[in-house]
User: Fold this.
Amino acid sequence: MSGRVLVGVKRVIDYAVKIRVKPDNSGVVTDGVKHSMNPFCEIAVEEAVKLKEKKLIKEVVAVSCGPQQSQETIRTALAMGADRGIHVEVSGKDYETLGPLQVSKILAALAKKEDAQLIILGKQAIDDDCNQTGQMTAALLDWPQGTFASEVSMDGAQVKVVREIDGGLETIKINTPAVLTADLRLNTPRYATLPNIMKAKKKKIANVKPADLGVDLTSRLEVLRVDEPPQRQAGMKVETVEDLVEKLRDTGKV
Amino acid sequence: MNRVLNKSSLRNLTGLIQRFQSTLVVAEHNNDKLTPITLNAITAAGKLGGDVSCLVAGTNCAKVVEEISKVQGVKKILVAQHESYKGALPEELTPLILETQKQFSFTHICAGASAFGKNLLPRVAAKLDVAPVSDIIEIKAPDTFVRTIYAGNALSTVKCNEPVKVFTVRGTAFEAASVEGGSATSEEVAPAPPAGVSEWLEQNLTKSDRPELTSAKVVVSGGRGLKSGDNFKLLYDLADKLNAAVGASRAAVDAGFVPNDMQVGQTGKIVAPELYIAVGISGAIQHLAGMKDSKTIVAINKDPEAPIFQVADYGLVADLFKAVPEMTEALSK
Assistant:
């Protein structure tokens, strides 16, 4: 196959960071906080690069929507083996209300423009935890979707996808062009080596505005407030298994 | 007096608006039984105040329709039976839901936030050109929902100004609707023409006699500390004494100790049982996201500094290989 893969990558607060809610309840503190590529996006990039290494596709294009700093995330994808990047610049107020609906419209427009055969995304971003963008992109393009993929095998114009579902696994076969979303078990993303990071600096990142793609960023979702979740009461340590079982019996838990 | 009048007329007005709400719950089932999370979604739908309808699409719907017809709170069941709904592929179900929406103009469309609901509803929403709301834990008003973000470390209250509200419901945040006393009528809806771009091939479900993880009253979970898949037998023995489901942390799944459908956490299953027993689990942010709404949390870990102890109601600092068999033994008495 000589197709092209678009991979969506999102810049999010690093997964290991303990987040803080802003005192005015307008959101979460992001200034001065460590950001990195969404872990599920890393898995998506790895899968795309693997498909290229197997010569099943020709080109991997990494796309990110967001402010200037999103370019760092694209660079990371380039260092992992993506061929070129597209930065869809969204900043200020538009970025604050940028959600899966807007991103999927951007991705769908890019997929058409770039004549993509596959779009690979992570199954969810660890900040908004939406788990929507892949499904919505597929819908807008009228392409089939292989979500929560833990195994992907390309066979001509079709893709066999093993999906993680609630009771176990299921296998589906979908026509290309298609959208895939990566689950944790799809692969183990590679580390970008220093030479590859250097090479990535030479790769091209195109700058695109949503308006160039004819995408309207209006959002009809409004975040009224963001709160800390209720804190749990401090618990107690018990000394022995007997104590533990007794406590559980006393409170009627066993 | 005047104030009282105003209040009651305001209430009447709200009642009037609510009567115009109508919600479609997309039922999840396996052509034989309704999936329990659908009952939680029906409760959530009932909180919106309007009529609740249920869509049952599948290759064989009769039994499930029979089941839902007795569920309290459901007024109407829409039934679409066709071979193309085999495997509940979203490419096939979406056109059906859009047709149904065209015919009945629901104000809300929802499903449980399971793998099924998460796969399907965003596709429906995009086709309606509306932004969906995922995994809601509370309904404040017909257009205002609460959901968690950042692995459950913040609560976001969102107002949805879309003409149709499409959302998925966190099962553990709403009671299950009663499966008795309902009297829904059912009507057939015409299946949409098959899309034919995807095909369901097979399913490999993990077989277990234990209760289902997301609805179990007691959950016993193991982490990396179990050291091997064989050692999970210790947890199965304990779980059997407690009639508990067995869960796992990502570390235990990644290490291959247990299959991934047992994973509890931000990217696995969200559980909120009466009792959650975490064994050999450190308590990473991503794991806590899946269990910290449990009523009582017990942690057994040999590391007194493990973060799990910060959320545990009862913590036991001990070697799990000694403590777990002891506990199983103590519960036999």
In short: DSSP finds seven helices and 13 strands in chain A. Chain A touches chain B through 80 residues (CB under 8 Å). The radius of gyration of chain A is 21 Å.
